[in-house]
Amino acid sequence: MTVRLRAHHLLCLLTYVGKGYSPAFVANYDVVVERLAGGEDILIVSGSDDICAPLLNAGEPHCLGESAARRDEAAAQDVADLLGRPLVAGARLELDPSTLARMREAFSSGLTRKACPGCEWFELCGAVAADGFRETRL
Predict the structure, then answer these.
(1) Is the dihedral of CA 116, 66, 79, 38 positive or negative?
(2) Which end of the chain, C or N, has fewer beta carbons within 10 A?
(3) What is the CA radius of gyration of the chain?
């Protein structure tokens, strides 16, 4: 199987510690993390993804908004630059331990955080990174 992810969620996964918009959102996110930890690959998608799923039935989910699309563009460019390959819708990625470590190092240094300013989770993610990603679930 394959986990469908929008580009900015590649960054969110790095600091996920079990906090989210609702209990349903967190439960779903935990399932996605388990799938990735189990070795499933990632398919980059445009728009909502497997992490967004619990939010899609809400009135106006932010994941369908322009700010999320802008975050995707910035994150895709940062991660593509880091990995040295295009990261567009349809691209596949394996989040093996080496790639995960490389992405966390770049996130900690600020190299891949252009998508993050203005996000309500910005400070939490910064604190998780500053703490060496110790409490992350992936």
Answers:
(1) positive
(2) N
(3) 14
C-alpha–C-alpha distance, residues 32 and 13, integer Å: 10
- According to DSSP, the β-strands at 2-5 and 41-44 are parallel
Q: Are 74 and 114 spatial neighbours (Cβ–Cβ below 8 Å)?
A: yes
Phi-psi region of 60 (alpha: psi -120 to 50; beta: other; left: phi over 0): beta
Helix axes 97-109, 66-83, angle to 10 degrees: 110
Q: How many CB atoms sit inside 10 A of residue 113's CB?
A: 20
Confirm whether pTM is higher than 0.90: yes
Residue 3 — very low, low, confident or very high, per pLDDT cuts 50/70/90? very high
Please answer whether residues 26 and 20 qualify as being in contact, where contact means their C-beta atoms are separated by less than 8 angstroms: yes
